[in-house]
Design brief:
The complex is a heterodimer of chains A (about 650) and B (about 70). Chain A is built from 16 helices and 24 strands. Chain A is an alpha+beta fold and about 650 residues long. Chain A has a seven-stranded antiparallel sheet with strand order 2-1-5-4-3-6-7, sandwiched between helices. In chain A, strands 15-16-22-18-19-20 form a six-stranded antiparallel sheet. A four-stranded mixed sheet of chain A has the order 8-9-10-12. Chain B is extended. The termini of chain B are close together. The chains are: A alpha+beta (about 650), B mainly beta (about 70).
Chain lengths: ~650, ~70
């Protein structure tokens, strides 16, 4: 079906202002019912997620919340998505299209009540092969009324790296098994060939089995809740409320776009290299053309796809664009498929964020879509004014490790012992938090006790590092330093992707956060009777994984040498080896020399800023001893006034 | 699936093909044809480059330019 836009964007009345009879005709129910049902849809997906979170066995579901649930409309409404759970942000945009692509390829006419479809192909449904889309149709009077869906990270999906988290895989064949759209359940009976496809290719089947069964039960829960809704309110209201939920989101984004000044805006960000060598940097460039209530986001001029599994797919790019716009200009309304109603994405084939099979392997896709978010945040910095957002720590620097217990039982830890959590950038509302997952995620932090109980590792420290946050009227979040001590011989994959240039860029005059790095401390490189210090001298005996460092001392140095993360694709370590991750710092917001000196003093007291940093970065002169007498710190007002009056530069 | 080679050039861009005619909304003779990703998936659009109003929007392949060998079975 072809559509033609009317051309002029004459203001339509807001949905809240249209007459009741018109509302009823458009949505098949009254305004109150539409609102109740839209909330009911959001309740349903949250309920499905709560069921999975509280019953999952795998660490990536149980401890990370690496999944999302959605509702999709029927084929005749083009599978519109009125509700998505408040869980993994990376799935928001992908699932708007993943359900359509899965069902349409399989054939909606072949679906029956009680069926569950699955698909995990990054080129069909986004993200990576470990994220399997499970899709269950909801029938009403023998017709598909909609779908309930769970996309969840499976602990393993085959491939050459246990758990899959590595930026060194060179094609789809090394990446893991690809599941094209097919049935896992047919009329509530397990399809053995579907289960076998997974179990015969993936590790940790004993964990996948109960997890997938739990997913199935929560799809049934979602179906039951929506069937009750259908029975009570009828099919017209059921579908009308879906359209209403989408239209509200589309309307909100449209008006947010209208409020932006018309213009062409450009921005870019990059990652260090791929897993082959460090000779090719990868840049994501955006040009945003904004006219009235429409925007076009063109990624032309971006780098071609990488040679290893750091690429993202076209649906991951869609997510990043939607999230960045929601972040900047439309924070109040829920994300739906209509978030993109007035946004066109122009996406060159074979780019870093629209990689092609089979050599454009996709696994660490967020490492490439975070630069896309950053590029948009940078491009629109001036246009959004005070609503500008500083950059975050930019890379998960994800760590995975594997080994076997004394009886030979294999184990794998993933995304628990690297730089997965760190600081955000500051905003107009205040200083940034220092311990989150990055902007494209919304996960939880695995508990130290669970990590140490499950694996041969001790989490020695997670702490903030002074003078790493971007200075600003509002300060960015501080970098996180994490040490893990591995008590047995272990194999590790470590993927820090953004240490050459600042990911935590400042906005509105705010400063950039400091870049991080990753080091390995072999047993002979540290004193095991004490915590390893965070001083420049502490790194002399280390083996750097990645970072811009002094080539001799291995301490951070802005004009130092870049250490390429994949020169050792897989790290084999002796017992009692320490991995140290230092994340990037978050960007500041606004002029730091206008920050209230009392707030700077508080940062010195709390260890975010040193006395030297307070004077250098904020022009605030503080006296006292923050370690021995933190409440005795004092501001030297005269010296501060003089310092702040000095000419810039 | 099909084999798509890695681009030889270091950067990649989308070509916008000129289309005869003028925009019904603003009158500009700046119509171009190219694929876009938006609500509802991929579309081939003919679109005004001055005001971004689409003259036409035709639904395109489910996965854009990516096609699958199984389609030829």
């Amino acid at each position: 079906m072809s559509t033609v836009e009317t051309g002029t964007q004459a203001e339509q009345p807001l949905l809240r202002d249209i007459p009741e009879d018109e509302f009823e005709a458009r949505y098949g129910c009254d305004r109150f019912t539409a609102t109740v049902l839209a909330n009911r849809y959001r309740y349903t997906v949250e309920h499905m997620c709560a069921g999975l979170l509280s019953n999952a066995f795998s660490i990536i579901l149980r401890d990370w919340y690496d999944f999302a649930a959605t509702i999709a409309g029927p084929p005749r409404d083009n599978y519109s998505m009125p509700a998505v759970s408040n869980s993994l942000v990376l799935f928001l945009g992908t699932m708007t299209d993943a359900i359509r692509n899965t069902v349409q390829e399989y054939g909606p006419e072949k679906l029956r009540p009680g069926d569950v479809l699955m698909c995990n192909d990054p080129y069909r449904t986004g993200t990576h092969v470990n994220d399997v889309n499970f899709v269950r149709p909801i029938f009403h009077e023998e017709e598909i009324a909609g779908f309930v869906n769970l996309q969840a990270h499976m602990l393993d999906m085959g491939g050459v790296v246990p758990g899959g988290f590595s930026g060194t895989k060179r094609n789809v064949y090394e990446n893991g098994v690809v599941i094209a759209p097919q049935l896992l359940y047919a009329e509530d009976r397990a399809v053995t060939s579907g289960w076998s496809l997974i179990f015969d290719n993936a590790r940790f089947g004993d964990v996948l089995l109960p997890d997938i069964k739990t997913i199935y039960e929560n799809l049934r829960l979602g179906e039951r809740l929506l069937s009750e809704t259908l029975e009570r309110y009828g099919i017209r209201a059921f579908h009308g409320a879906m359209r209403y939920a989408c239209d509200i989101a589309g309307e909100a984004m449209h008006h947010a776009l209208r409020a932006l000044p018309d213009g062409d805006y450009a921005g870019e960000d990059r990652i260090d290299c791929d897993g082959v060598d460090d000779e090719e940097e990868f840049t994501v460039r955006v040009t945003i053309r904004k006219r009235g209530g429409r925007a076009e986001v063109d990624l032309s001029g971006s780098s071609r796809q990488a040679r290893t599994s750091i690429n993202a797919g076209w649906l991951d790019a869609k997510t990043a664009v939607g999230v960045a716009f929601k972040f900047l200009i439309d924070r109040e309304t829920p994300f739906t498929s209509a978030t993109f109603r007035d946004i066109d994405i122009v996406l060159p084939d074979g780019s870093l964020v629209s990689a092609l099979p089979p050599d454009g392997a996709i696994f660490l896709y967020w490492e490439s879509t975070m630069p896309l978010v950053n590029a948009i945040l940078r491009a629109l910095e001036d246009a959004v004014g005070e609503r500008a957002v500083g950059g975050d720590y930019g890379s998960l620097s994800i760590h995975s490790a594997s080994g076997a217990t004394a009886d030979g039982t294999p184990w794998a830890t993933m995304a628990q012992c690297g730089g997965e959590h760190g600081p955000w950038g500051a905003t107009s509302t205040g200083d940034a938090d220092s311990y989150n997952v990055f902007y494209l995620a919304n996960n939880i932090d695995p508990a130290t006790e669970a990590i140490e109980a499950d694996f041969p590792v001790l989490v020695m420290r997670k702490e903030y590092v002074a003078d790493t946050a971007g200075a600003g009227y509002h300060r960015g979040g501080a970098a996180v330093l994490k040490d893990t001590l591995w008590t047995e011989g272990v194999e590790h994959y470590s993927s820090p992707m953004h240490v050459k240039s600042a990911s935590g860029f400042g906005v509105g005059g705010g400063g950039d956060g400091r870049n991080g790095a990753v080091w390995v401390f072999e047993p002979e490189a540290f004193d095991p009777s004490a915590l390893i210090p965070d001083t420049p001298e502490a790194y002399a005996g280390t083996t750097p994984v990645a970072g811009v460092l002094d080539p001799e001392t291995h301490a951070l140095r802005e004009d130092g040498e870049y250490f390429f993360f994949a020169r050792v694709p897989m790290w084999q370590t002796e017992p009692n080896t320490v991995f140290r991750y230092l994340t990037n710092g978050g960007g500041g917001w606004g002029n730091p020399f206008e920050r209230d000196p009392e707030r700077v003093k508080r940062d010195v007291r709390d260890g975010y800023v040193t006395i030297e940093g307070a004077e250098r970065d904020y022009g605030v002169v503080i006296t006292g001893d923050p370690d021995r007498d933190p409440e005795g710190l004092e501001i030297d007002s005269a010296a501060t006034e003089a310092k702040r009056a000095e000419p810039a530069g | 699936m099909h084999t798509f080679p890695r681009p030889a050039e270091a950067t990649v861009s989308v070509a916008r093909e000129p289309v005869e005619g003028e925009c019904a909304a603003c009158g500009a003779q700046e119509l171009r044809s190219y694929p876009v990703l938006s609500e509802g998936g991929w579309f081939r659009v003919v679109k005004c480059q001055r005001c971004l109003v689409s003259k036409s929007r035709e639904p395109w392949n489910l996965a854009g330019s990516i096609t699958f060998l199984s389609e030829q079975v």
